[in-house]
């Protein structure tokens, strides 16, 4: 019996051992002194909130997956999803022996797993050391996005970027091609495509991009176009920092940018009793894209000459997912899609509405939700950030 517990104890320790991130590089706080503006913009991004402790939708989705599949344990799913959500996690997989130890309630193993999943670096999200320590990228699109398994990280203490003459007193610097071009290779490490166990594509932003034949990349939209600024406040010899052509590190989303206004044109017209909204998608991927429960809502209210409301209508651009029983679910558990009405990349689409009798004018809103209301309730999402309807365009249009 003593030998049994000795073996269990040894497994509990060795099964989780891996290289730790040096405290000097574990959070963006240590980068602020030289990269204050970049760090400030990054802090507004979803990259800074990729850890389950800061992302209610992510956390509730993980818990939902475990509730629906009794063969899974929560820590196992957290580690699997960390391949992209937290690529510097020090553990790549939860093996059967790990599950066995956790299910047995071995306290040492539970504490160590909790530590691995909640390090400062993990909680800091997709931070500086995640992207700028990537030395090589080996993306096999046939396998889709594999996060940390697609890259080779460099020596800790070396930061890679687009410049061949960058100098820092705090770390080594080196130039790498994946930072120099508009190619989306670095982004596709996590944002190309991901199938679930049924072979259903959960995320396919990169595949959608490839389908358009675009060469625009992701950076102009989700960071910014290049502008003259400073990549670093540091300068050798006490002089002024060197001006660079840089981009904002905001990783634009619906909450921290005008990306929907900038890349979706909305026009209205009337024809033979129809009110028509025309959407032109200027981006090289479908809208909405990314997490599969997002939706775009076109809502129209109709009023007569006395401002009395005489009707309303709406169309939703979305994907709906069902499990093997035909019940609505999240993409990660879906056996198939029940519908997909999204606007494809570089596409233009007319959406027609019947004008009610007596209508003199219409008011329309073009809005975006990060998860549809039904599934938000099903998952138990409570964070207002995910429940909010983000309105990007509102107009009043005379119909006569």
UniProtKB/TrEMBL annotation:
What keywords are annotated for this sequence in UniProt?
Signal
Record-linked Pfam families:
Mtrc-MtrF_II-IV_dom
- The coiled-coil regions, if any, are none
Q: Where is the signal peptide?
A: 1-18
Residue stretches making up the Outer membrane cytochrome MtrC/MtrF-like domain: 79-228
Q: What protein is this chain from?
A: Multiheme c-type cytochrome
Read off the lineage from the record.
Bacteria, Pseudomonadati, Campylobacterota, Epsilonproteobacteria, Campylobacterales
């Amino acid at each position: 019996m003593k030998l049994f517990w000795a073996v269990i104890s040894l497994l509990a320790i060795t099964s989780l051992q891996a290289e730790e991130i040096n405290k000097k590089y574990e959070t963006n706080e240590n980068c602020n002194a030289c990269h204050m503006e970049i760090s400030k913009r990054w802090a507004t991004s979803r990259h800074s909130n990729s850890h389950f402790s800061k992302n209610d939708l992510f956390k509730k989705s993980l818990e939902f997956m475990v509730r629906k599949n009794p063969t899974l344990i929560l820590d196992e799913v957290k580690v699997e999803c960390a391949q992209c959500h937290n690529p510097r996690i020090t553990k790549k997989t939860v093996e059967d022996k790990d599950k066995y130890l956790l299910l047995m309630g071995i306290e040492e193993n539970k504490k160590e797993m909790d530590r691995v999943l909640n390090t400062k670096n993990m909680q800091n999200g997709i931070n500086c050391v995640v992207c700028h320590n990537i030395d090589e990228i080996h993306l096999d699109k046939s396998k889709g996005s594999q996060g940390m398994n697609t890259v080779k990280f460099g020596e800790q203490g070396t930061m890679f970027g687009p410049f061949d003459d960058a100098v820092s007193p705090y770390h080594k610097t080196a130039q790498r091609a994946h930072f120099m071009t508009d190619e989306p290779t670095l982004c596709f490490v996590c944002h190309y495509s991901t199938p679930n166990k049924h072979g259903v594509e959960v995320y396919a932003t990169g595949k959608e991009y490839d389908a358009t034949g675009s060469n625009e990349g992701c950076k102009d939209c989700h960071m910014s176009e290049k502008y003259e600024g400073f990549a670093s406040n540091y300068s050798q010899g006490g002089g002024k920092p060197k001006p660079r052509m840089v981009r904002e590190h905001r990783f634009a989303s619906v909450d921290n940018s005008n990306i929907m206004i900038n890349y979706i044109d909305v026009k209205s017209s009337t024809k033979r009793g129809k009110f028509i909204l025309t959407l032109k998608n200027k981006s090289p991927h479908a809208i909405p894209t990314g997490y599969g429960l997002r939706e775009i809502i076109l809502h129209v209210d109709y009023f007569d000459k006395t401002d009395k409301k005489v009707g309303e209508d709406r169309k939703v651009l979305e994907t709906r997912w069902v499990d093997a029983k035909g019940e609505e679910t999240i993409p990660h558990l879906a056996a198939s899609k029940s519908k997909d009405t999204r606007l494809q990349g570089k596409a233009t689409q007319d959406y027609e509405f019947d004008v009610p009798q007596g209508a003199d004018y219409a008011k329309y809103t073009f809005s975006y939700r990060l998860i549809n209301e039904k599934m938000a309730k099903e998952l138990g999402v409570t964070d207002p950030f995910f429940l909010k309807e983000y309105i990007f365009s509102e107009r009043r249009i005379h119909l006569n």
